[in-house]
Design brief:
six-stranded mixed β-sheet, 15 helices
């Protein structure tokens, strides 16, 4: 760097390459090490610097109208500056994909106590990382583990079971942290017990389509035979958990995992599968409670902004885990905007992912603001001197990203 053989971004790329753990991280850091990202910043810097040079010429030689046509020069540089400002604005709206590849996609596992969240974490990692127990509130803190998911870095977090009837201050703090993580997670997995109301309502709707008749209370033949009393605790827990999480999630959950299907009878499991995968009207819906704790309209269903991916699993028997891993891999690719082919890092990991650190984003945001101010000063609020100062600031911010500032 001191001998001008590498710029600052390349040095950072080398550091990231040495600490990378997944193929996506290696591909991104290698592109940065080669100087591919720095070239884009240099291009923007040169274009803004050229506009600044023209503008300063109009200021220095304003009195010699024969040599300098102020209006013509401003009309020439303004479109190019607008184009650079637009390109930088698009780069800043990348949803932090470059930083997610560098640090890992945040995946949170949420749900009520005893639905199998810790068991799911262990099953995904194929390792016993979290303590599993039938005692509610076993997981009291967020358990975070790094995972290589098909070449992409993922930070998996097992959270404390969400419930309201908590007297233990330690567990209450764990639930609070779970709700905070729900706001930050890039990928949210909501786990329910296969016998909970969430799945029973979907099963009921599928049974109706299959020809089973309701009795006067609205129950189907299969539901009259089911041990409803054993479902009540799971029902309430899952509904309370979703109600609390729904107020914190920005866009709803992404994946619904129905766990413990090994405890269901064959007929109940088949009915549940029909509800999940054949009943299009019910897919992606979930019952919720109002603030008083009663369900809205009895069996009111709401849908997240984007219907979630649904998986039926048994963590103890490893049933459906492979399909779930493939589904999560697909979701991560959607978050990172990786094409299904997903193989060519030259095309998939460049583009808008030139921002790989908060330092880059800070300087680029300051540059974008300076360009906006300069364009305003070259428009209706005409002031060439102040506009030149804003362009000079923009050049300085771009140069700071690649380390070209003395």
């Amino acid at each position: 760097f001191e001998n001008a053989k590498m710029d600052l971004m390349q040095i950072e790329g080398l550091s990231d390459l040495l600490t990378s753990e997944t193929e996506a991280q290696r591909s991104q850091s290698l592109l940065q090490l080669k100087g591919r990202f720095g070239l884009r910043y240099d291009e923007w810097r040169e274009r803004v610097l050229r506009g600044l040079a023209y503008l300063e010429a109009t200021i220095d030689f304003a009195e010699d109208e024969a040599d300098v046509a102020e209006e013509e020069i401003i009309a020439k540089i303004r479109p190019e500056l607008m184009e650079v400002e637009d390109q930088i604005g698009k780069a800043l709206s990348d949803t932090r994909r470059g930083e997610m590849i560098r640090h890992g996609v945040k995946l949170g596992i949420f749900g009520a106590p005893n639905v199998g969240k810790s068991s799911l974490l262990n099953a995904l990692l194929d390792d016993k990382r979290a303590i599993v127990s039938d005692i509610p509130g076993t997981t009291r803190d967020v358990v975070q583990v790094n995972m290589n998911l098909g070449g992409y870095p993922v930070n998996v977090s097992d959270t404390a079971g969400i419930r309201t009837d908590v007297t233990d201050p330690i567990e209450r703090e764990g639930i609070s942290r779970s709700l905070e993580l729900a706001k930050e997670a890039n990928l949210s997995v909501f786990v329910v017990d296969a016998s909970s109301t969430i799945t029973n309502i979907l099963t009921k709707r599928a049974n109706k389509e299959g020809g089973e008749k309701d009795d006067k209370d609205g129950d189907t033949d299969r539901e009259r035979k089911a041990p409803k009393d054993s479902y009540s605790q799971n029902d309430e827990a899952s509904l309370v958990a979703h109600t609390l999480l729904d107020s914190t999630w920005k866009r709803g959950y992404d994946v619904l995992v129905v766990n413990k299907i090994d405890k269901l009878s064959d007929s109940h499991r088949h009915s549940l599968q029909s509800a999940m995968f054949e009943n299009k009207a019910a897919k992606g819906t979930i019952p919720v409670q109002n603030e008083e704790g009663s369900e809205k309209g009895g069996s009111h269903l709401i849908s997240p902004a984007t219907p979630p991916m649904i998986h039926l699993v048994s963590c103890t028997q490893q049933t459906g885990i492979e399909e779930l891993v493939n589904g999560l891999h697909q979701k991560v690719e959607e978050i990172l905007a990786i094409s299904p082919e997903g193989a060519n890092p030259e095309s998939n990991l460049e583009g808008a992912r030139i921002i790989t650190r908060e330092r880059h984003r800070k300087h680029l945001r300051a540059c974008h603001e300076s360009l906006q101010h300069a364009l305003s000063l070259l428009g209706t609020d005409r002031d060439e001197v102040l506009a030149a100062e804003e362009l000079r600031s923009a050049v300085h911010e771009l140069a700071a990203i690649v380390g070209r500032v003395d």
